[in-house]
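lol ok so funny story. i was supposed to be doing the assay writeup but got distracted and ended up predicting the structure for this chain instead. priorities right. anyway since i did it might as well share w the group, maybe its usefull for someone
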Amino acid sequence: MSEHTRSTLLECRDVSVGYEAPVVTDVELRVQRGEILALLGGSGSGKSTLLRAFTGLLPPLSGEIRLFGKSLYDLPHDERMRLLHRTGTAFQQDALFSGMTVAENVALPLRELTRLPRAVIREMVEVRLSAVGLAGYGKRAPASLSGGQRKRVALARASIMDPELLFIDEPSAGLDPIVAATIDETLIGFREALGITMIVVTHELESIRAIADRAVMLGRGKVIAEGTIDELSQSREDIVYHFFHRVAEGSPAAPSVR
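and the output, tada:
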C-alpha cells in the first residue's frame, strides 16, 4: 500500500447522492489525514446529503465511497459498523437526549461500544467536558444550556472515542460570532491535541477562514470548486465569488461582481 493511500482517510470516486433523484453527482474527493476540510454550498446544494453518505446513513446512488481504504457500502453490515466506529459525528441539531444529563449524553458512545469500567468512563467524560470548556456541567440537563453550550456537548460526545475522522454539520449555525469563535477554537484544539481529521459542513465565512485547510464547494448539483481558502476566495466562478465576497446586508462596501 502506498503512502498516499495510507494518508487518505476518505475518498469519493464518481459519487452521486440523493434520494429518489440525485442531489449531487460526479463527486471526486479525497480527505487526507490531519486536515480540516470545509464542505461549502448554498441551501439545498447537497452538503448535508453528502455528509449523510459519508457517515453510513445514505448509500450513494452510484460511485464508491472509500473509508480508511475500504469500500464503505460494499462491506457486510458488522464490518461497516466497525469501520464507522473509527469516526464521530456531530449533527446540526445537536441531538442531545433530554432525559439524560450532560455527562450521560457524552458517555453514551463509551457505554454502548466499550466495556470500560464506570469510573474510567466518568473520568474520560470529565476530561472531555473540560476540553470543550464545560468543566462542572456534567450534572446539568441539556435544556438548561445555551445553544453554544449544547453544540460543545455534542462535540464532546462525538469525539469521546478519539475518532480518526470527525464529521460535523453546521457547528456554528445560529450562534453569535463570539460563541461561534469558541466552537472554532474547540475544533482546532481537537486537531492539535488529538490529531483528529475533520469534515465540516458550514456556510460561516469566519469559521471557514479560522479552521479550514481546504474547501470543497457544491453548486448546480456538482462540485464547482476545490482548493485552499485563498484559492477559492480568488475564484471568479460566480457562485464561489458571491460566497466569499458577500458582506453584511446593507453594507455600503459591497464588492462589485466581476
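The beta strands are 8-18, 22-32, 36-41, 62-67, 70-71, 87-90, 165-169, 197-201, 214-219, 222-227. Residues 177-194 form the longest helix (18 residues).
back to the writeup now i swear
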